[in-house]
């Protein structure tokens, strides 16, 4: 079979992307929250404060979202490298892998894209996703053919430090680099993704009632990396990770310890950026994150025009607005 690699829209270079450790308490995942498809970009009335320029002019591609019956579904595979590992038994007891994965893929596709029939819906051609449960450090990572680029010192710093979650006692370590993957780069093309998920991490999820939600949450986060765009490899890691956790948040799979924090910059990544994106989604209308993702498909990332064209103001101003709104809400409490 010939593998078609898009020439003008390289698949996301989300290749070594890390999942933060999350943890503790709460029941299994509630049903997904499908969002209503807003009007297409350029015709959107849902963007209340938007003076962004219409990008129809450089829409050189046709939609590749699937067919009229729905988004194109990938072949899903599960590989358990060590059935004797206690994490393997916990995984198999906690989830129906086929079911949660197909639901998670559907959620990711729906939250990142309008609909297969919508001309602005162009998804990466992710043909297969293989979940590999194995004994490794860290939590999880997703591979393809390219390495994620380090962006700014501040955002790469986020992903280099070893952090220890106080709740679950699992270290967040920089997951082994792709070169240490058992696969060489040439074994897979970017249409075929692998999600490596740590059996040790699964084994450490506590309390046990969190297993289903945590496993589903981590897999949902990693599946976003299989479907999101990354500005041809130029998107800041913090935004890539923020979008992944925004999807997780919108599937009601946020772990109990997540909270809205306003310290630092907007692009610290993970839930920190996810809650900021949620503020943007609420302020500018449903589909705003889809529009961010779509813009990351079309253009290399250049911070100032990216945000001002999309939302009419610089991201620093949006972040300031968000910080002020949060501090007012905190005062009320
Ligand atoms: Zn990630």
Automatic annotation (TrEMBL):
Regions of compositional bias (Acidic residues) in chain numbering: 55-68
Biased composition (Pro residues): 28-41
Biased composition (Low complexity): 1-27
The name this protein goes by in its record: Peptidase of plants and bacteria-domain-containing protein
Top-level taxon of the source organism: Eukaryota
Region (Disordered): 1-72
